[in-house]
Amino acid sequence: MKPKRKVIMAKEVGFCFGVKRAINLTRQALAEREEVFILGDLVHNKRVTDELEGKGLRKVEEYDNEKTGTMVIRAHGLPKAKISEIRARGIEIVDATCPIVLRAQEAAQTLERDGYQVVIVGDKNHAEIKGILGALQQPALVVDTIEELHEAKADYILMRKIGVIFQTTHALELCNKIVNEMLMMCKEIRIINTICRPVQNRQDDAIEIAQRVPLMIVVGSRTSANTVELAAICRHYNPNTIQVQNAEELLPEQFVWADVIGIASGLSTPEDLVEAVKVKALTYDAETEPSLVTV
Ligand code: SF4
Questions:
Q1: Is-catalytic flag, 229?
Q2: Which of 9, 35, 65, 167 is 20 to 30 A from 242, comparing alpha carbons?
């Protein structure tokens, strides 16, 4: 008789509250209004975007030519000046910006008001970072690697009195490394920790699980930055980490050898997709009753 395969599930899976709120606001807008559109995808999950588009949500790649209807602002936010400009054209706004992202914008404004050069540790191409930049009066410095920090120093862009915030979905470990380097370059540093607590909790939990299982599976879209980052963090602690988008993608040869499997998920992964991966991991070729350990 084969031994039971076990699954250790992360404490929290499924959408974070910011994503849930954005989906609910969009559903409500679709039920109450006509001509609802959005810039890009609301979440990095095809099943959810298909459902919303099926209810009439129109995805646009740019909104400069839109003159009527209602625009949903995603959880990542949008620069304030852009929102005002869109409103001025007569377009209604449903603002689904996550309150934690708004707090990051306010933190950057506080640092700027207090005379610090604002430095954002994050991806300059990410919508959230563009929203934070758009909330400021002066240009801010955005760095995502130690190399970028050194380049800014070499180009005399990095000042000696800086105020630092973080992309809300960034890993604290990465931010710590960059901040340590800043300490050697700047005279005064004020830090406001804007990392989202649900993100950090999930990362801590996933790291803890990854270290005690032979195989770690991270479930979520390959276009979701936080899922890709979560998988990279787990891989750092456990090289046997794989990322799958759904149960169909999970191949038997990837997991049948493991007697214990850890499972974690990104913030925009629906809970039932994670559940389906768990069921496949537990029941595929199982000759005995599968067992589940939830920690
Ligand atoms: S990850 Fe955090 S900041 Fe981003 S939408 Fe979810 S709750 Fe909000």
A1: no
A2: 167
- Within 228-295, strands assigned E span 241-244, 260-265, 291-294
Q: For 157, which DSSP code?
A: -
Structure tokens at 282: 């537990």
Ligand 1 geometric centre to CA of 193 (Å): 14
pLDDT of 289 above 60: no
- Hey, what CATH topology would domain 100-195 get? Cobalt-precorrin-4 Transmethylase; domain 1 (3.40.1010)
Domain boundaries, the chain: 6-14+198-294, 17-97, 100-195
pLDDT in tens, 56-114: 999 998 888 888 999 999 999 998 889 999 999 999 999 999 999 999 999 999 999 99
Distance CA 118, CA 90 (A): 33
Query: Quick one: tokens of 118?
Result: 């604002």
Q: Which of 25, 101, 197, 226 to mutate to test the pocket of ligand 1 (most atoms within 8 A of CB)?
A: 101
